[in-house]
Amino acid sequence: MWQRKNERWDFYVLGSAGGRAKSRQTMCIYLPEKLLLDAGNIFALNGESLLKVEHIVLTHSHLDHLVDIPFLIDYTYGLREKPLKIYGLPQTLESLRKNIMNWDVWPEFGVLKLPMTGEYAVEYVEIYPGKEYNIDSYRLIPVESRHTVPTISLIVKKEGRGMVYTSDTYKNPSLWEIIEKDEEIKVVLVDVSFPSYMSTVAQASMHNTPQSLMEDLSLLKRRNLRVYAVHIKPSHEAEVLQELKSLNYRVYPFIGKRRIRV
Predict the structure, then answer these.
(1) What 3-state class would DSSP assign to 94?
(2) Which of 116, 130, 139, 206 is the most buried (most CB within 10 A)?
(3) Residues near 85 by Cβ (< 8 Å), separated by ≥ 6?
(4) Fold type of domain 10-261
(5) Angle at which helices 173-181 and 210-217 pack, to 10 degrees?
(6) What gap in Å lies between CA 162 and CA 102, rounded to an integer?
């Protein structure tokens, strides 16, 4: 089948912060019109778009990255025609089912059938680093991240162009070596949670600061990428933004919601 190459495409960041505070919402990336990466702010979509979502890829099990899944299932349950497929590492899916979809905190929709079709409402799909997955019209390649729980970064490609969403991570040279070699990757969304003077806290919680990010960016010898800092903690937003301005490598702070063209 003939496929376009190097065709630009768009994705939408619905939530970009490392916590919630007034207008700041947690991580959620929308790849029209059926796929989400993480689930921190799904309800930024309207009702019609919510019904079209068929796939959610979770990077890890922390609450800010999956908080809207129970509410999405509840909202769309009686109207869905297809199961909601939730993808993640085996440990991530186990944590979701054990700690949230457990009948104590929320119903386990994975054993309930859709009224309209009789299919199960939720399907859990295990994914693994280093393997490639075709989801909707996208190619996804999970890569091991460095965080306090099993976590993946995601390389997403379509029509010869790609982006990377690191999810929560501390320094991860192996990921940046992949980025350096892969010329299809044009955009990177990278965790920069804390200002550099909080490096002890950042390292203990396995998050980046501007300084630790610069150490990873030094591995890029020939690539000219658009790098966006996401997952900034709202309580330290002003400090991180000020520090990012002083970096030699231009890193764009990402605040709020917007479209990005790959």
Answers:
(1) helix
(2) 206
(3) 54, 55, 56, 122, 123, 124, 125
(4) Metallo-beta-lactamase; Chain A (3.60.15)
(5) 40
(6) 36
CB 80 within 8 A of CB 55: no
Q: What is the pLDDT of residue 2?
A: 45
Q: At which residue do the structure tokens 């799909």 appear?
A: 125
Distances (CA, A) of 133 to 52, 61, 103, 122, 124: 20, 20, 31, 19, 15
> Is residue 73 helix, strand or coil?
helix
Confidence at residue 1, expressed as pLDDT on a 0 to 100 scale:
40
Report the alpha-carbon distance of residue 32 to residue 43 in Å, rounded. 15
Dig out the tokens for 95 from the structure: 């944590």
Per the listing, tokens 């709202």 go with 234
209-257 pLDDT, tens per residue? 999 999 999 999 988 899 999 999 999 999 999 999 988 788 999 998 9
